[in-house]
């Protein structure tokens, strides 16, 4: 297993950071909390009066145009990779103790041995502590016969008052984020998100 904060990856994500800062300044980024009621997941309908970063189309070209803007956010970039086998599956843990991102693949869920990676960018507003998190899993398009599981500590990831997170999938063809549902923490504070294929996802 390999955990690293590669400079080249951090530089690439720097473009994203600048865009997020621009979006926050222009449109007033509002990342709402979620229900305090514990549950595995909820329906996929968002209230019409809620707005978020994930309501906007994702355009990497915009990042480059915004790169010179002054940042009003804190950003954390994490990267990890590990080899998974068809017979054994495996797990990849990225992050610090307590504030981690753990991805689990079960035995037999993949057709062949593969090296997977998980890249994470966490963006937090310096003004109001709103948080958006983007996950990029590789190899893109990898499909599991049994869904993989992403496990995160919700309060550590999004803030002490948060017990749930909203989960999004990026449709590469349209550039739009697609709301996938709400996942709430268990008694240990951990939310488990089920992932059936690799792509780019987001949480708030």
What does this structure look like?
A hairpin with a 5-residue loop joins strand 5 and strand 6. Helices cover 16% and strands 43% of the residues. The chain has 204 residues and is α+β, with helices and mostly antiparallel strands. The protein starts with a strand and ends with a strand. A 7-stranded antiparallel β-sheet has the order 1-2-5-6-11-8-9. A 4-stranded antiparallel β-sheet has the order 3-4-7-10.
- Into which percent range does the helicity of residues fall? 10-25%
CATH topology: Chondroitinase Ac, Chain A, domain 3
Low-confidence stretches: 1-49, 63-68
Count of all domains: 1
Got a strand count?
11
Beta-strand portion reads 35-45%
H-E string: EHHEEEEEEHEEEE
CATH class value: Mainly Beta
Number of helical regions: 3
Strand order of the largest sheet: 1-2-5-6-11-8-9
| 3D shape | globular
Mean pLDDT: 77
Q: Over the alpha carbons, how many angstroms does the gyration radius reach?
A: 17 Å
What distance separates the N and C termini? Answer: 27 Å
Tell me the major beta sheet.
7 strands, antiparallel
Which class best fits the helix and strand makeup? alpha+beta
* CATH hierarchy: architecture: Sandwich
């Amino acid at each position: 297993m390999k955990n690293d904060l590669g400079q080249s990856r951090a530089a690439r994500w720097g473009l994203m950071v600048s865009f997020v800062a621009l979006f926050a300044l222009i449109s007033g980024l509002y990342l709402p909390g979620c229900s305090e009621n514990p549950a595995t997941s909820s329906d996929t309908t968002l209230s019409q009066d809620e707005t978020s970063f994930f309501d906007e189309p994702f355009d990497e070209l915009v990042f480059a145009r915004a790169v010179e803007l002054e940042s009003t956010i804190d950003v954390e970039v994490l990267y990890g990779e590990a080899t998974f086998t068809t017979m054994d599956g495996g797990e990849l843990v990225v992050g610090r103790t307590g504030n981690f991102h753990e991805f689990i693949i079960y035995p037999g869920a993949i057709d062949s041995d593969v090296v997977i990676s998980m890249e994470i960018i966490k963006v937090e507003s310096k003004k109001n502590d709103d948080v958006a998190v983007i996950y990029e899993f590789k190899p893109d398009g990898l499909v599991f016969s049994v869904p993989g599981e992403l496990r995160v500590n919700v309060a550590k990831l999004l803030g002490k008052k948060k017990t749930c997170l909203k989960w999004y999938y990026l449709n590469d063809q349209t550039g739009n984020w697609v709301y996938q549902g709400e996942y709430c923490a268990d008694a240990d504070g951990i939310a488990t998100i089920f992932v059936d294929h690799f792509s780019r996802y987001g949480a708030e």
